[in-house]
Design goal:
Chain A: Pfam families: ADIP (PF11559). The structure holds two protein chains of two kinds. By secondary structure, chain A is an all-alpha fold. Chain A has helices at 2-7, 10-26, 32-40, 49-56, 62-76, 96-218, 245-303, 306-326, 332-409, 414-480, 486-523, 526-535, 539-552, 554-557, 565-576, 580-585, 591-611; one strand spanning 225-228. Chain A has a domain at 61-218. The longest helix of chain A is centred in the first third of the chain and has 123 residues, at 96-218. Chain A is flat. Chain B has a six-stranded mixed sheet, with no helix packed on it. In chain B, strands 1, 2, 39, 40 and 41 form a five-stranded antiparallel sheet that branches. The chains are: A mainly alpha, B mainly beta. At the A-B interface, helix 6, strand 1 and helix 7 of A face strand 10 and strand 13 of B.
Chain lengths: 613, 460
């Protein structure tokens, strides 16, 4: 309730004060009940007010009531209802204006009061609802408090129980520990007792044993004996030796020898293991270095600490230098060096791997999607662009064709002639270019031809030599038919292998080129020709290849040697090339023809190509 | 795989000669020596009593037969059948007899381990070694036959004496830091001696030939300790099996543990191949309802077939609940054996008696597990290749190789319960021993077997 007082504003409180003032004054009046009712009554009651007032004033007591009212009003501070009397004796006249004014003022007051009342009522209602709310809140909170209190009590109870349990467990643990201690003590005491007893028993036993020994052994038991037919020789054939100090020393020596041998063996094993491990370390180091050196450079350059690489390189060199002596030395410096370098390399590798990991994770985190999308967009854009270009090109081609047709049909106009001139000029230019190109090609061809002829001459010479050698060999073989000797056969083998390879060489060199030519020609442009000419000087290398190949297959071709070259040729050539010219070219006499034929096919094919469009 | 006919045998006494030419077997008081290839009887010797122990000399020329009950040892020569030698330990009694590596001396341990008598076949000389310790493995010779290590007990302390076998001179004598020494074993290279303590304490000590303590290893305290020890043939590893069901591998450089192999009851690693022996009655076709149910017949039926199936992981193995209040409980690694090439280690955990574990020593991990239908009696590696022969006391022989494994029924009328087996030196044959009989099993050549194994492995 105190809250409410503070909440109300000043105006309201002053009004309420004035109301209380009214009520206190009104109590004196006879009709205080009514007036109070008026004050407290709500709007629906106001209609009855007239009837009540009519009862207040009757015909008889007008004067009194007026005076009463006047009195009342004056006490409330209203002007008097009577006119100002000039004389005391004269009867005061009722001033109607004043009455009306008073009435009006009263009415105004009444309205104000009603308004205030309304406000107060709404305020009251509001406050009432507020209060209800607060009360409900309060009750709720109270409930909560209650429940939490209960919970707390429960928890406390549980805590207490747990503590109790804990205490019990502690107690139990302590008991157990005590028990364990006790048992251990018992065990220990039992053990000592047992040992003691054992010792005592053993002593007794020993005594008995001693006595028994004396009894049994000293009786000179006749039975204790060995009945043997004859003594046998020792397993090692030696005679038993007397026990002397010497034998003792010898035994010691032998024992130490055995021990030493064992230790030596173990040392050897350990050394071997060490060497193996060192080898593994070295290899690891080498591999690490080889693995790191190409990758190392890039990040190093980026980070620009080139000093590190220099140092490590120096170390590597040192490692290389000392590797030879590494196996013999097992001194600490070498070991340290090796382990240090390995450690360093390992650290580098580790950091590198970590870096890579980081990069990978970064890429995974951010870059991956974006880049992918961008590239796709690029692709699309690119394709669109290209398509557009294609379209444009097509249009261009179309217009050009149309123009060409126009040119072809109508050449009478000046403009067309001018255009034609232009075109002719252009064509001229182009032809010039082509001409120069052709010239260059021709030069190349010439060069090619020269080299070819040289090669052919060389081949011819070789062939001749081979033929001679073969003849001599055949002769030799004929001679050796009767007395075959091993060394000779080996010589023959070697020789034949060589000759076979050279023979093959000739064939394959010739037969390989045509294989290339049709292929390159079929590509079909003048540019292709230049490519071909470029590829032709490379033929020695291809022949090298052929040589190696034939060397590989020489073992299998040894038996082929008995066959004459005429027999070989169809086989070899037929396998590799179907063109008849190349089989002819393989003959030593027709090297020139070979080349001319070759060039002929070039030109022919070229011409055919030109005809095509 | 071929099987010979069965021969009579008693007390599982059957041994190949070290040179691989002969096979000695005992029937009561008779010793029969056969040619390995023809199986014809070469010699037949008659002893004075039932033979309890036989041993070939290292040069395969002599064979000793011990009759512990009578305190007698009889030696026979293969070259001279008429030659005889009888050693009588008299009232001192006899509990153990063995050859020295030179094949010319016999070491007899008297009752109560009063002494060891060294009898020579070359001279009249007799040597005595006093105070031998009564333990599981108290005498061990180096592989080259040069030295003998002997566990001794004097004044309630353990000692080890190292003798030179050629003249029985004491080379080294040192006390070991053990409560109650249980076993000693030379490394195959003859330079390191492993000494382990009683099962009450996990302790293994490594001594050099000259008596220096190289290292001591203890995995834990207050619990049952070492049960079995095995050197790898390369002397690189020492496998120590203990009562906690683990094998610990020590290396020969630092003598520290490289790894430990646990033997869990369930195998989860999908890299491990688990072969499970499955039994099938031949009359039961595929998909047919088995009637009576296969579980009804107790014990393996002689007519039933058995084969290996590859079980998919996780596999839980059959385990025994050990009786803890009895001595020598059936827990821990009781058997350990390295393959001849040191690549594999076979173990048996005694509370999963049906399973043999094969470990890959190169990769230090479990390679395969074979679960049999009945407890594994013994297993032995082929001396030539990584091939393991297993017997379970049934009528079957089981073979494992890295390519796969197979089970073979031993033919013959009646049940031939294979209780023990021993490989021939060449790895081409082995002797299968039952209670009363011995049977030789000839394997195919290597190639044939490996292909067969591969096929089998493919099938299973």
């Amino acid at each position: 309730m105190g809250d409410w007082m503070t909440v109300t504003d000043r105006g309201l409180s002053s009004e309420s004060k004035s109301i209380s003032q009214y009520t206190s004054e009104i109590k004196m009046s006879p009709s205080s009940l009514y007036s109070q009712q008026v004050l407290c009554s709500s709007i629906p009651l106001s209609k009855n007010v007239h009837s009540f007032f009519s009862a207040f004033c009757t015909e008889d007591n007008i004067e009194q009531s007026v005076s009463y009212l006047d009195q009342e009003l004056t006490t409330f501070g209203f002007p008097s209802l009577y006119e100002e009397s000039k004389g005391k004796e004269t009867k005061r006249e009722l001033n109607i204006v004043a009455v009306l004014n008073c009435m009006n003022e009263l009415l105004v007051l009444q309205r104000k009061n009603l308004l205030a009342q309304e406000n107060v009522e709404t305020q009251n209602l509001k406050l009432g609802s507020d209060m209800d709310h607060l009360q409900s809140c309060y009750s709720k909170l109270k409930e909560q408090l209650e429940t939490s209190r209960r919970e707390m009590i429960g928890l406390q109870e549980r805590d207490r129980q747990l503590q109790c349990k804990n205490r019990n467990l502690h107690q139990l643990l302590k008991n157990e520990k005590d028990e364990v201690q006790k048992l251990q003590n018992i065990i220990a005491s039992r053990a000592t007792q047992y040992n003691h007893d054992m010792k005592r028993k053993e002593r007794e036993y020993n005594k008995l044993k001693e006595r028994l020994h004396q009894l049994v052994m000293n009786k000179k038991d006749k039975k204790i004996a060995m009945d043997i037919l004859n003594y046998v020789g020792r397993a090692d054939g030696k005679r038993g030796s007397w026990r002397t100090g010497k034998t003792e020393a010898r035994n010691e020596d032998e024992m130490y020898k055995i021990l030493l041998n064992d230790y030596e063996y173990r040392q050897k094993q350990i050394l071997m293991e060490n060497a193996e491990l060192k080898k593994v370390l070295q290899q690891m180091k080498k591999e690490m270095i080889s693995l790191l050196s190409p990758q190392k450079k890039k990040p190093r350059e980026r980070v620009d600490d080139s000093t590190g690489t220099v140092i490590s390189d120096v170390e590597e060199d040192a490692g290389e230098l000392s590797r030879e002596s590494m196996w013999d030395l097992s001194c600490e410096t070498v070991r340290e060096q090796l382990t240090n370098s390995i450690r360093k390399q390992w650290r580098i590798l580790k950091s590198h791997v970590e870096k890579l990991d980081n990069q990978v994770s970064k890429v995974h985190l951010e870059g991956f999607n974006d880049e992918d999308v961008i590239s796709r967009q690029d692709h699309e854009q690119e394709t669109e662009k290209l398509e557009l270009e294609i379209q444009q090109c097509k249009e261009m081609i179309k217009t050009q064709q149309q123009l060409l047709q126009q040119l072809a049909t109508a050449c009478d106009d000046d403009t067309t002639s001018l255009l034609r001139d232009c075109y002719l000029l252009e064509e001229k230019e182009r032809l010039k270019e082509e001409w120069s190109l052709f010239k260059e090609q021709k030069k190349n061809f010439e060069r090619e031809r020269r080299s070819f002829t040289e090669a052919a001459i060389r081949l011819g010479l070789e062939r001749k030599a081979f033929e001679e050698e073969r003849a001599s060999w055949l002769k030799q073989q004929f001679l050796n038919m009767t007395t075959f000797d091993h060394q000779n056969s080996e010589n023959v083998k070697l020789f034949s292998a060589f000759s076979g390879s050279s023979d093959r060489d000739n064939l394959t060199v010739h037969s390989r080129q045509p294989q290339k030519k049709p292929h390159s020609v079929s590509n079909g442009s003048p540019v292709c020709m230049s490519k071909l000419t470029k590829s032709l000087p490379a033929s020695p290398s291809t022949s090298d290849f052929c040589q190696t190949r034939s060397c590989i297959s020489e073992h299998s071709s040894i038996n082929v040697l008995n066959i004459t070259p005429e027999e070989i040729k169809p086989n070899q050539v037929g396998g590799e090339c179907t063109n008849q010219k190349w089989s002819v070219a393989s003959r030593p006499g027709s090297q020139e023809g070979c080349y001319s034929g070759c060039s002929l096919t070039y030109t022919n094919s070229h011409v055919e190509k030109d005809d095509l469009p | 795989m071929n099987f010979s006919e069965v021969f009579k045998l008693s007390s599982l006494l059957c041994k190949f000669s070290p040179d691989g030419k002969y096979l000695a077997s005992c029937v009561q008081y008779r010793l029969v020596v056969r040619d390995v290839n023809t199986l014809q009887i070469l010699q037949l010797y008659t002893c004075l009593d039932q033979i309890q122990h036989i041993e070939w000399s290292a040069d395969s020329l002599f064979i000793l037969c011990a009759m512990y009950k009578r305190g007698l040892v009889q030696v026979w020569s293969l070259e001279q059948p008429e030659w005889h030698c009888k050693i009588d330990e008299g009232s001192a009694g006899l509990v153990a007899s063995c050859w020295s590596p030179d094949g010319r001396h016999i070491l007899n341990t008297t009752e109560f381990h009063l002494r060891i008598t060294v009898w020579s076949l070359c001279t009249k000389s007799v040597s005595y070694i006093k105070y031998p310790k009564a333990c599981l493995q108290g005498i061990t010779f180096t592989r080259d036959g040069r030295y003998m290590a002997l566990a001794e007990r004097r004044d309630c302390k353990d000692y080890v004496s190292i003798f030179v076998c050629s003249d029985w001179q004491l080379l080294r004598h040192f006390d070991t830091d053990t409560q109650d020494l249980t076993g000693i074993e030379w490394a195959p290279n003859g330079c390191v001696l492993a000494v382990w303590d009683t099962c009450l304490e996990y302790k293994i000590l490594l001594y050099s030939l000259d008596g220096r303590l190289l290292s001591a290893y203890s995995a834990y305290e207050w619990s049952l300790g070492i049960k079995s020890v095995a050197w790898s043939p390369s002397s690189q590893f020492l496998a120590v099996g203990s009562y906690d069901g683990k094998v610990r591998i020590l290396n020969h450089v630092t003598w520290k543990m490289i790894t430990e192999f646990g033997h869990p009851a369930t195998i989860n690693n999908p890299k491990t191949v688990v072969y499970k022996e499955a039994q099938k009655s031949p009359q039961l076709g595929l998909g047919c309802l088995s009637f009576p149910p296969p579980g009804a017949g107790a014990g393996p039926l002689p007519s039933s077939e058995s084969k290996y199936e590859i079980a998919s992981v996780p596999v839980s193995l059959q385990t025994l609940k050990p009786v803890t209040d009895r001595a020598n409980p059936k827990i821990g690694i009781g058997m350990l054996a390295f393959s001849p090439d040191s690549y594999f280690l076979a173990t048996r955990n005694d509370n999963t008696p049906n399973a043999v574990w094969v470990w890959d020593i190169q990769k230090l991990r479990l390679f395969a597990v074979l679960e049999q239908l009945s407890p594994v009696r013994t297993f032995q590696w082929d001396p030539q290749q990584p091939r393991l022969a297993i017997c379970t006391g049934g009528s079957r022989l089981y073979l494992w190789s890295p390519a796969g494994c197979m089970s073979v029924q031993v033919p013959g009328e009646g049940d031939f319960a294979v209780l023990s087996l021993c490989w021939h030196l060449s790895g081409d044959s082995m002797a299968l021993l039952s209670k009363d009989h011995v049977c030789l099993c000839f394997l195919e050549t290597e190639a044939a077997v490996s292909t067969a194994c591969r096929q089998l492995g493919g099938h299973t």
